[in-house]
Amino acid sequence: MRELHRAGAAPEPRALTHRAILAIAAPIMISNVSTPLLGVVDTGVVGRLPDPAYIGAVALGALVFNYVFWGFGFLRMGTTGLTAQAFGAADAAEVRASLGRAVSLALVVGAGLIFAQWPIREVAFALLDGSPRVVGLARDYYDIRIWAAPATLINYALLGWFIGLGRARVALALQLVLNITNMLLDAFFVLALGLGVKGVAGGTVLAEVVAAAAGLVIAARQLRVFGGRWDVTRLFQSDRLGRTVAVNRDIMIRSLALIFIFSWFTGQGAKQGDTILAANAVLMNMVAVTVYFLDGWAFAAEALVGRAVGEANRAGLSAAARMTTWWAAGVAVLAATVALLLGPAIIDVLTVDETVRAAARVYLPWAALVPLAGVWCFQLDGIFIGATRAAEMRNAMLISVVIFLVGWWLLKPWGNHGLWAALYVHYVARTGTLLYYFPTLVRSVAA
Q1: What is the model's pTM?
Q2: pLDDT for residue 80
Q3: Nearest alpha carbon to residue 91 among 8, 13, 161
Q4: What are the beta bridge partners of residue 91?
Q5: What H or E segment, with its residue span, contains residue 402?
């Protein structure tokens, strides 16, 4: 294990190898795929019930939590970048402090979300369009799942910390604990006990708590290996805390803007009826599997770029960006091919409703080819997160939202095909805006 110390010069940077990239990316890809597979299982479980309203309810309920929880996704992304840079600089005290700040913030924010659950619910569902039956079921889902807030956010912080350290196998283990537990509980609560969407939400809450407890135990053992002790002064040191807040604030704005795009997509689908809403939900589960799979390479870029920044190693940054992106591009081609070939069978597994199946097959090519359009911005996200260039990420995403909305308005006459095309506009906009800032990022690191 790499030697760390409290302060001082980092060891000489080592040349990046494909084996080093795979050591991080492969476990993360496996763990990431388990996350959308949970959504697939949720959809498949409620899809056994012969009413598309159940699928639509889980889609809308999950959408609310995309805002409620992933708005605080900076607890994962910001922690990864800051931890990787501290690790690259061989600063053990800051590695420990990065975890402490993230977990403390997760507890505070999680408690606040539970306290504010009623106004959040009323505002969220007032903004979403759906049939009364779908919205009523989605509210039931929300009322239970909100209690997972502290555990969910702690899991974000832990995942970011372990990825920043390059401990991808630990991240894999925790994600598997979370998602396998969740899948089993969801299936039991819904199929065995007949609890419907309430069972899906309850299974998620219990699984988040189990995973958070396991993660904290593993983190405590890791810190004992690093040595040292908790230093409250270091934990809340004004300049370091200020940097953490600034990075997290900008990533939060960026995340909310991204979630807005997908929320808009879901909301516009809902306006076209329960069948289109359910069909898009089925297809977006397929998209999520491929996107999370590709994110393994983006996560590798986060850790390796962050480490290079901590080492003040521009050559290492360029190598990490280039090598991880080539791997991601190859995997994107494979993912799109598999999605096109197996898409009809996957649709049949996810829903028994024939009208939803037929609608999903019509729009399948749009979903299957998302990896080819999105892989470039996914990798750029990872590079910018590792370098903690959060302000540029924020600006790029806000510009991309405007471009997406213009694209949606222009493509609106083509119905759901136009809606999917607008999603592609968003991917192109994200890539272009981040590429604009990329040269500045590279120049910011010492040669």
Answers
A1: 0.78
A2: 87
A3: 8
A4: 5
A5: helix 390-411
